[in-house]
Amino acid sequence: xxxxxxxxxxxxxxxxHDTESWAALRARNLAEKHLRLPCCESPVVLxxxxxxxxxxxxxxxxxxxxxxxxxxxxxxKDIVARAATRAGWFVTTEGRGTSxxxxxxxxxxxxxxxxxxxxxxxxxxxxxxxxxxxFQRQQRYQASGIRxxxxxxxxxxxxxxxxPAFAVRIxxxxxxxxxxxxxxWPANNVLHLMGRAEPRWxxxxxxxxxxxxxLRGRLRFAPAVGHVVPARVIxxxxxxxxxxxxxxxxxxxxxxxDRAYPGFGNAYVELNAIGSDPxxxxxxxxxxxxxxxxxxxxxxxxxxxxxKTRGETYLSNGCVHCxxxxxxxxxxxxxxxxxxxxxxxxxxxxxxxxxxxEPAVLNRWWFDPTTSS
Length: 373
Description:
Structural class: alpha+beta
CATH class of the largest domain: Alpha Beta
Number of strands: 20
Distance between the termini: 33 Å
Shape: elongated
CATH architecture of the largest domain: 3-Layer(aba) Sandwich
Number of helices: 10
Oligomer: single chain
Low-confidence stretches: 186-197
Helix content: 10-25%
Protein backbone atom coordinates (compact mmCIF):
# COMPACT_ATOMS: atom_id res chain seq x y z
CA UNK A 1 0.00 0.00 0.00
CA UNK A 2 2.43 2.71 -1.11
CA UNK A 3 1.91 6.48 -1.22
CA UNK A 4 3.74 6.71 -4.56
CA UNK A 5 3.06 5.45 -8.05
CA UNK A 6 4.31 6.32 -11.53
CA UNK A 7 2.62 7.68 -14.63
CA UNK A 8 3.88 8.57 -18.12
CA UNK A 9 4.35 12.12 -16.84
CA UNK A 10 6.37 11.15 -13.75
CA UNK A 11 5.49 10.17 -10.19
CA UNK A 12 2.20 10.67 -8.35
CA UNK A 13 2.29 11.17 -4.59
CA UNK A 14 -0.92 10.45 -2.70
CA UNK A 15 -0.15 12.87 0.13
CA UNK A 16 -0.09 15.79 -2.30
CA HIS A 17 -3.76 15.37 -3.17
CA ASP A 18 -6.85 16.79 -1.51
CA THR A 19 -10.33 15.26 -1.74
CA GLU A 20 -11.17 16.93 -5.04
CA SER A 21 -7.91 16.19 -6.86
CA TRP A 22 -7.89 12.61 -5.54
CA ALA A 23 -11.35 12.01 -6.99
CA ALA A 24 -10.22 13.49 -10.32
CA LEU A 25 -7.11 11.26 -10.38
CA ARG A 26 -9.22 8.18 -9.63
CA ALA A 27 -11.62 9.00 -12.45
CA ARG A 28 -8.78 9.55 -14.90
CA ASN A 29 -7.06 6.30 -13.92
CA LEU A 30 -10.30 4.35 -14.35
CA ALA A 31 -10.58 5.75 -17.84
CA GLU A 32 -6.93 5.66 -18.96
CA LYS A 33 -5.36 3.08 -16.59
CA HIS A 34 -2.17 5.16 -16.79
CA LEU A 35 -0.88 4.61 -13.25
CA ARG A 36 1.57 1.84 -12.29
CA LEU A 37 3.28 0.78 -9.07
CA PRO A 38 7.08 1.10 -9.15
CA CYS A 39 7.65 -2.23 -7.38
CA CYS A 40 6.19 -4.40 -10.17
CA GLU A 41 4.52 -2.08 -12.69
CA SER A 42 1.14 -3.47 -11.63
CA PRO A 43 -1.96 -1.42 -12.59
CA VAL A 44 -3.12 0.79 -9.72
CA VAL A 45 -6.34 1.33 -7.81
CA LEU A 46 -6.79 4.39 -5.58
CA UNK A 47 -8.03 3.72 -2.05
CA UNK A 48 -8.46 5.32 1.38
CA UNK A 49 -7.80 3.53 4.68
CA UNK A 50 -9.99 3.54 7.77
CA UNK A 51 -7.53 6.09 9.24
CA UNK A 52 -8.24 8.43 6.34
CA UNK A 53 -4.96 7.86 4.47
CA UNK A 54 -5.08 7.99 0.68
CA UNK A 55 -2.89 5.37 -0.97
CA UNK A 56 -2.24 3.37 -4.12
CA UNK A 57 -2.81 -0.39 -4.22
CA UNK A 58 -2.22 -3.26 -6.63
CA UNK A 59 -5.12 -3.98 -8.92
CA UNK A 60 -3.68 -7.52 -8.93
CA UNK A 61 -0.70 -8.60 -6.81
CA UNK A 62 0.20 -11.54 -9.04
CA UNK A 63 3.91 -12.32 -8.41
CA UNK A 64 4.85 -9.05 -6.69
CA UNK A 65 7.18 -9.71 -3.75
CA UNK A 66 6.77 -6.33 -2.01
CA UNK A 67 5.64 -6.60 1.62
CA UNK A 68 2.18 -5.13 2.36
CA UNK A 69 2.14 -2.23 4.84
CA UNK A 70 -0.23 -1.90 7.78
CA UNK A 71 -2.70 0.96 7.79
CA UNK A 72 -0.91 2.43 10.81
CA UNK A 73 2.46 2.36 9.06
CA UNK A 74 0.96 4.01 6.00
CA UNK A 75 -0.80 6.64 8.11
CA UNK A 76 2.42 7.66 9.89
CA LYS A 77 4.27 7.90 6.57
CA ASP A 78 1.54 10.19 5.29
CA ILE A 79 1.81 12.52 8.33
CA VAL A 80 5.61 12.73 8.00
CA ALA A 81 5.49 13.32 4.24
CA ARG A 82 2.91 16.10 4.53
CA ALA A 83 4.78 17.83 7.38
CA ALA A 84 8.10 17.69 5.52
CA THR A 85 6.47 19.12 2.39
CA ARG A 86 4.96 22.02 4.37
CA ALA A 87 8.44 22.65 5.86
CA GLY A 88 9.74 23.33 2.33
CA TRP A 89 11.47 20.03 1.53
CA PHE A 90 11.17 17.95 -1.61
CA VAL A 91 9.62 14.68 -0.46
CA THR A 92 9.21 11.25 -1.98
CA THR A 93 8.02 8.04 -0.35
CA GLU A 94 9.39 4.56 -0.88
CA GLY A 95 12.59 6.26 -2.08
CA ARG A 96 15.24 3.81 -3.28
CA GLY A 97 19.02 3.91 -3.30
CA THR A 98 22.23 1.90 -3.01
CA SER A 99 25.00 2.37 -0.46
CA UNK A 100 28.70 2.69 -1.30
CA UNK A 101 29.03 -0.98 -0.30
CA UNK A 102 26.39 -2.06 -2.81
CA UNK A 103 23.51 -2.58 -0.34
CA UNK A 104 20.07 -1.48 -1.51
CA UNK A 105 17.66 0.42 0.70
CA UNK A 106 14.10 1.75 0.51
CA UNK A 107 13.27 4.74 2.70
CA UNK A 108 9.72 5.26 3.95
CA UNK A 109 9.99 9.03 3.53
CA UNK A 110 13.02 10.60 1.83
CA UNK A 111 13.50 14.38 2.11
CA UNK A 112 15.92 16.61 0.23
CA UNK A 113 16.29 20.35 -0.28
CA UNK A 114 18.46 22.62 -2.37
CA UNK A 115 21.35 23.94 -0.33
CA UNK A 116 21.53 20.92 1.99
CA UNK A 117 24.41 18.50 1.58
CA UNK A 118 22.59 15.37 2.75
CA UNK A 119 19.10 13.96 2.35
CA UNK A 120 17.08 12.90 5.39
CA UNK A 121 15.24 9.57 5.63
CA UNK A 122 12.40 8.95 8.07
CA UNK A 123 11.88 5.26 8.82
CA UNK A 124 8.61 4.10 10.38
CA UNK A 125 9.03 0.79 12.23
CA UNK A 126 5.56 -0.44 13.25
CA UNK A 127 6.61 -4.07 13.64
CA UNK A 128 9.37 -4.95 16.09
CA UNK A 129 12.93 -4.73 14.83
CA UNK A 130 16.01 -5.91 16.74
CA UNK A 131 18.56 -3.35 17.83
CA UNK A 132 21.16 -5.12 15.71
CA UNK A 133 19.02 -4.75 12.58
CA UNK A 134 18.39 -1.09 13.37
CA PHE A 135 22.11 -0.39 13.69
CA GLN A 136 22.89 -2.27 10.49
CA ARG A 137 20.25 -0.40 8.51
CA GLN A 138 21.48 2.88 9.96
CA GLN A 139 25.02 2.09 8.80
CA ARG A 140 23.64 1.39 5.32
CA TYR A 141 22.14 4.87 5.22
CA GLN A 142 25.35 6.42 6.53
CA ALA A 143 27.28 4.66 3.75
CA SER A 144 24.88 6.32 1.30
CA GLY A 145 25.36 9.83 2.72
CA ILE A 146 21.82 9.79 4.16
CA ARG A 147 20.84 10.99 7.63
CA UNK A 148 18.20 8.59 8.95
CA UNK A 149 15.75 8.98 11.85
CA UNK A 150 13.69 6.13 13.29
CA UNK A 151 10.11 6.25 14.58
CA UNK A 152 9.36 2.96 16.35
CA UNK A 153 6.34 1.37 17.95
CA UNK A 154 8.43 -0.86 20.26
CA UNK A 155 9.77 0.14 23.68
CA UNK A 156 13.42 -0.83 23.25
CA UNK A 157 14.82 1.85 20.96
CA UNK A 158 18.42 3.09 20.66
CA UNK A 159 19.33 6.24 22.56
CA UNK A 160 22.38 7.55 20.74
CA UNK A 161 23.54 10.45 18.62
CA UNK A 162 24.55 8.10 15.81
CA UNK A 163 21.11 6.45 15.57
CA PRO A 164 18.30 8.92 16.34
CA ALA A 165 15.32 6.79 17.37
CA PHE A 166 12.08 7.57 19.15
CA ALA A 167 8.83 5.89 20.10
CA VAL A 168 5.73 6.84 18.12
CA ARG A 169 2.07 6.32 19.03
CA ILE A 170 -1.26 6.81 17.26
CA UNK A 171 -3.89 8.26 19.56
CA UNK A 172 -7.58 9.01 19.36
CA UNK A 173 -8.74 10.74 16.21
CA UNK A 174 -5.77 9.21 14.31
CA UNK A 175 -3.41 11.85 15.68
CA UNK A 176 0.16 10.72 16.32
CA UNK A 177 2.86 11.79 18.74
CA UNK A 178 6.54 11.14 19.29
CA UNK A 179 7.73 10.12 22.77
CA UNK A 180 11.16 11.36 23.81
CA UNK A 181 13.33 9.35 26.24
CA UNK A 182 13.42 10.66 29.79
CA UNK A 183 16.47 10.58 32.03
CA UNK A 184 15.58 7.37 33.86
CA TRP A 185 16.99 4.91 31.33
CA PRO A 186 20.08 2.80 32.12
CA ALA A 187 23.48 3.13 30.53
CA ASN A 188 24.83 1.51 27.35
CA ASN A 189 22.83 3.87 25.13
CA VAL A 190 19.75 1.65 24.98
CA LEU A 191 16.26 2.28 26.26
CA HIS A 192 15.47 -1.19 27.58
CA LEU A 193 12.18 -2.96 27.99
CA MET A 194 10.81 -2.22 31.45
CA GLY A 195 8.81 -5.39 32.09
CA ARG A 196 5.18 -5.12 31.09
CA ALA A 197 4.66 -1.61 32.41
CA GLU A 198 4.82 1.30 30.00
CA PRO A 199 8.00 3.31 30.60
CA ARG A 200 7.93 6.89 31.85
CA TRP A 201 8.66 9.20 28.95
CA UNK A 202 10.01 12.73 28.70
CA UNK A 203 8.75 15.13 26.05
CA UNK A 204 5.75 14.25 23.90
CA UNK A 205 5.59 16.03 20.55
CA UNK A 206 2.93 15.85 17.83
CA UNK A 207 4.40 13.91 14.89
CA UNK A 208 3.86 16.67 12.33
CA UNK A 209 5.53 19.27 14.57
CA UNK A 210 8.35 16.83 15.37
CA UNK A 211 9.00 16.17 11.66
CA UNK A 212 9.17 19.84 10.75
CA UNK A 213 11.27 20.64 13.82
CA UNK A 214 13.75 17.84 13.14
CA LEU A 215 14.27 19.13 9.60
CA ARG A 216 14.79 22.65 10.96
CA GLY A 217 17.48 21.67 13.46
CA ARG A 218 15.31 21.69 16.57
CA LEU A 219 16.30 18.16 17.58
CA ARG A 220 19.48 18.18 19.67
CA PHE A 221 21.46 15.47 21.45
CA ALA A 222 22.80 16.12 24.97
CA PRO A 223 22.02 19.85 24.73
CA ALA A 224 23.63 20.79 28.05
CA VAL A 225 27.02 19.18 27.41
CA GLY A 226 29.60 21.90 26.79
CA HIS A 227 27.36 24.62 28.24
CA VAL A 228 26.99 26.36 31.59
CA VAL A 229 23.80 25.56 33.50
CA PRO A 230 22.42 26.51 36.92
CA ALA A 231 22.70 23.84 39.60
CA ARG A 232 21.45 23.28 43.11
CA VAL A 233 24.20 22.19 45.50
CA ILE A 234 22.77 19.31 47.54
CA UNK A 235 24.07 18.52 51.01
CA UNK A 236 23.04 16.96 54.31
CA UNK A 237 23.97 17.67 57.95
CA UNK A 238 25.85 15.10 60.01
CA UNK A 239 28.16 14.85 63.02
CA UNK A 240 31.89 14.36 62.58
CA UNK A 241 32.85 10.93 63.80
CA UNK A 242 36.10 12.25 65.28
CA UNK A 243 35.54 15.71 66.78
CA UNK A 244 31.80 15.15 67.35
CA UNK A 245 30.94 18.60 66.02
CA UNK A 246 28.24 19.33 63.40
CA UNK A 247 29.36 19.38 59.80
CA UNK A 248 27.70 19.02 56.40
CA UNK A 249 28.34 16.60 53.54
CA UNK A 250 28.25 17.57 49.88
CA UNK A 251 26.18 14.84 48.19
CA UNK A 252 25.91 16.05 44.63
CA UNK A 253 24.45 18.57 42.20
CA UNK A 254 20.98 18.88 40.73
CA UNK A 255 21.49 20.32 37.25
CA UNK A 256 18.52 22.62 36.56
CA UNK A 257 18.40 21.81 32.86
CA ASP A 258 14.71 22.62 32.51
CA ARG A 259 15.49 26.31 32.91
CA ALA A 260 17.68 26.35 29.82
CA TYR A 261 16.10 23.46 27.91
CA PRO A 262 12.34 23.39 28.58
CA GLY A 263 10.93 19.90 28.74
CA PHE A 264 14.29 18.14 29.05
CA GLY A 265 13.97 17.63 32.79
CA ASN A 266 16.54 18.14 35.51
CA ALA A 267 19.41 15.75 36.26
CA TYR A 268 21.07 14.73 39.50
CA VAL A 269 24.79 14.01 39.50
CA GLU A 270 26.16 12.33 42.62
CA LEU A 271 29.53 13.20 44.15
CA ASN A 272 30.96 9.81 43.18
CA ALA A 273 30.20 10.56 39.51
CA ILE A 274 32.05 13.87 39.74
CA GLY A 275 34.87 12.03 41.49
CA SER A 276 35.34 9.15 39.08
CA ASP A 277 38.68 10.88 38.51
CA PRO A 278 39.31 12.25 42.04
CA UNK A 279 41.91 14.87 41.13
CA UNK A 280 39.97 16.22 38.15
CA UNK A 281 36.71 16.17 40.13
CA UNK A 282 38.30 18.07 43.02
CA UNK A 283 39.75 20.67 40.65
CA UNK A 284 36.39 21.12 38.90
CA UNK A 285 34.57 21.61 42.22
CA UNK A 286 37.17 24.06 43.55
CA UNK A 287 36.78 26.25 40.46
CA UNK A 288 32.98 26.23 40.22
CA UNK A 289 31.78 25.94 43.84
CA UNK A 290 33.11 28.78 45.95
CA UNK A 291 34.85 27.52 49.11
CA UNK A 292 33.31 30.42 51.04
CA UNK A 293 29.79 29.39 50.03
CA UNK A 294 30.44 25.78 51.00
CA UNK A 295 31.91 26.74 54.35
CA UNK A 296 29.04 29.13 55.06
CA UNK A 297 26.72 26.12 54.72
CA UNK A 298 28.85 23.94 57.00
CA UNK A 299 30.58 21.96 54.24
CA UNK A 300 34.25 21.23 54.74
CA UNK A 301 36.88 20.79 52.04
CA UNK A 302 35.88 18.38 49.28
CA UNK A 303 39.07 16.92 47.87
CA UNK A 304 40.92 13.75 46.92
CA UNK A 305 41.91 11.86 50.07
CA UNK A 306 43.42 8.45 50.68
CA UNK A 307 41.24 6.05 52.67
CA LYS A 308 42.88 3.19 54.56
CA THR A 309 39.48 1.51 54.81
CA ARG A 310 38.98 1.49 51.04
CA GLY A 311 42.65 1.28 50.18
CA GLU A 312 42.35 3.99 47.55
CA THR A 313 42.15 7.72 46.94
CA TYR A 314 38.72 9.10 46.20
CA LEU A 315 36.84 12.42 46.20
CA SER A 316 35.57 12.83 49.74
CA ASN A 317 34.09 15.23 52.25
CA GLY A 318 36.09 16.52 55.18
CA CYS A 319 34.84 17.88 58.49
CA VAL A 320 34.41 21.64 58.33
CA HIS A 321 36.17 21.88 61.72
CA CYS A 322 38.93 19.23 61.78
CA UNK A 323 39.09 18.25 58.09
CA UNK A 324 39.08 14.54 58.86
CA UNK A 325 37.71 12.35 56.06
CA UNK A 326 33.99 11.62 56.36
CA UNK A 327 33.67 8.14 54.82
CA UNK A 328 31.32 7.62 51.89
CA UNK A 329 29.22 5.26 54.02
CA UNK A 330 28.04 8.34 55.93
CA UNK A 331 26.28 9.53 52.77
CA UNK A 332 23.73 6.71 53.07
CA UNK A 333 23.04 7.55 56.72
CA UNK A 334 22.02 11.14 55.93
CA UNK A 335 20.34 10.70 52.54
CA UNK A 336 16.88 11.37 54.00
CA UNK A 337 18.08 14.72 55.38
CA UNK A 338 19.45 16.10 52.11
CA UNK A 339 18.61 19.68 51.24
CA UNK A 340 19.49 22.40 48.76
CA UNK A 341 22.33 24.51 50.16
CA UNK A 342 22.72 27.14 47.43
CA UNK A 343 22.81 27.54 43.66
CA UNK A 344 25.78 27.94 41.35
CA UNK A 345 26.40 28.07 37.61
CA UNK A 346 28.50 25.11 36.45
CA UNK A 347 29.76 23.89 33.06
CA UNK A 348 28.61 20.45 31.98
CA UNK A 349 31.91 19.02 30.79
CA UNK A 350 31.84 16.03 28.42
CA UNK A 351 33.72 13.93 30.99
CA UNK A 352 31.06 14.73 33.58
CA UNK A 353 28.31 13.39 31.32
CA UNK A 354 30.27 10.24 30.52
CA UNK A 355 31.37 9.51 34.07
CA UNK A 356 27.87 9.51 35.49
CA UNK A 357 26.51 6.18 36.70
CA GLU A 358 23.60 6.77 34.31
CA PRO A 359 24.88 8.62 31.23
CA ALA A 360 21.39 8.64 29.71
CA VAL A 361 20.47 11.33 32.26
CA LEU A 362 22.42 13.81 30.11
CA ASN A 363 23.15 11.92 26.88
CA ARG A 364 19.72 11.86 25.27
CA TRP A 365 17.66 13.76 22.74
CA TRP A 366 15.80 17.02 23.32
CA PHE A 367 13.26 18.68 21.06
CA ASP A 368 13.55 22.47 21.23
CA PRO A 369 9.98 23.83 21.50
CA THR A 370 11.02 27.49 21.26
CA THR A 371 13.45 27.92 18.36
CA SER A 372 11.88 29.35 15.23
CA SER A 373 12.70 28.05 11.75
